[in-house]
Amino acid sequence: MPASVWLFTVTEVLRGIEEVAPLNLTMRLVYPAAQLLVGVVGAFVVDDIAVVAGGVLAVMGLTGVGAAVWIVRARGFRPRLRGPGLPALRRRYLDYTIPLFLGGIATTTQRLGFYPLIAVFLSGVAGGVFAVGVLVSQLVRLPLMAINQFIPPVAAALNEEGHDDALSRLYHVTSRLVLVGVVAAAVPVVVYRETVMAAFGPTFTEYAPLLVLFVLAQIAACAAGSVGILLRMTDHQQALLVTNVGITTVLAVVAIPLTVEFGLAGVVWTYLLMLTLNNGIEVAVLYHLEGLQPFTKRHSYPLLAALPFGAVALVARALAPGVVGAVVGTLLGLGAFAATLRTLGFTPVERRLASTLAERYGEMIPGA
């Protein structure tokens, strides 16, 4: 836990100062690669699970140290235990983080409570299918994760300085761009669900219809953009705590009956219910407290563009089943998707934000 907290703290500092390239290099490349290396050494060289566990702990701490060294060298930040204004800062920190800490317990219960539920009432195969469904559907969530890399400091600054109109426009535009990316990722996963699940083994193929529910859950989670972050950045962490505790309570009541009655399908429907309730209620709370809501008529454009995408993908699947058809259908479908969106048009703000994102993430690529 100390190593995890240390790494999380350092990466959140990177997020706060909008250092997108070092943040993604640390969390999306260095740390996963180090974990993989430790796993390979533990499994194939020393054949000892204790080495894997200790190695993961070590690389977690060392990755945090490396990121902290970069922050010190690049920005000159230093930890301080004494100084003017620190007592007031500590009080503000505690007032802000305690509700988030308690809400984090509720959120963790929501996200991980499915696994003990499966262990008690279902089988190991069901647990594997659920884990694969969550893993694959998380790929649909990547556009939201990309936006969330820079939203917190920008939203906090706009809220602190009273730029309510700018914050509202930011929310509209970012949520629309997220929906574009999410729909583009979701359509091929839904159309080629059997091919996707077959990659994990023949046992998983028969559960391919459940993958549609996993994808719908992620669409529900992403359609409203960075709503949870905006609640935190506008200092409504207590409302977020109440929301998460309430949703956790509801899920605890409905999850067991659904699992007993419908098996794995009941668990997946509960997962869909969880993400839909979470984001739907958070949107309502944010609108009530701040007058912010994500949706405009332009949010329908990605959904309209999904129709030709899906049609092309289905035709390709019928003509060439399997991996080849999936690749060709996805590429042609993306072309139809992009052409439809281009016809419907983008606003200057959307274009500017998209170019900014491309520029920021391009920093990660040498020579870009």
Describe the structure.
The chain has 368 residues and is mainly alpha-helical. It has two domains: 1-79, no CATH class; 80-362, no CATH class. 83% of the residues lie in helices and 0% in strands. The chain has helices spanning 2-16, 20-45, 49-75, 86-112, 114-121, 124-140, 142-148, 151-160, 164-191, 193-198, 202-205, 208-222, 227-233, 237-262, 264-290, 300-319, 323-344, 348-362. Helix 1 (2-16) runs parallel beside helix 3 and helix 14 runs antiparallel to helix 15. The longest helix is centred in the middle third of the chain and has 28 residues, at 164-191. The mean pLDDT is 88.
List its traits.
368 residues, 0% strand, mainly alpha
In total, the number of strands is 0
Shape: globular
Distance between the termini: 37 Å
For the report, how would you describe the main beta sheet? none
The overall pLDDT, averaged over residues, is 88
Topology:
Elements (H helix, E strand, L loop, with lengths): L1 H15 L3 H26 L3 H27 L10 H27 L1 H8 L2 H17 L1 H7 L2 H10 L3 H28 L1 H6 L3 H4 L2 H15 L4 H7 L3 H26 L1 H27 L9 H20 L3 H22 L3 H15 L6
Helix pairs in contact: 1-2, 1-3, 2-3, 4-14, 6-9, 6-12, 7-9, 8-13, 9-12, 9-16, 9-18, 12-15, 13-15, 14-15, 16-17
Concise account of the structure shown:
By secondary structure, the protein is an all-alpha fold. The chain has 18 helices and no strands.
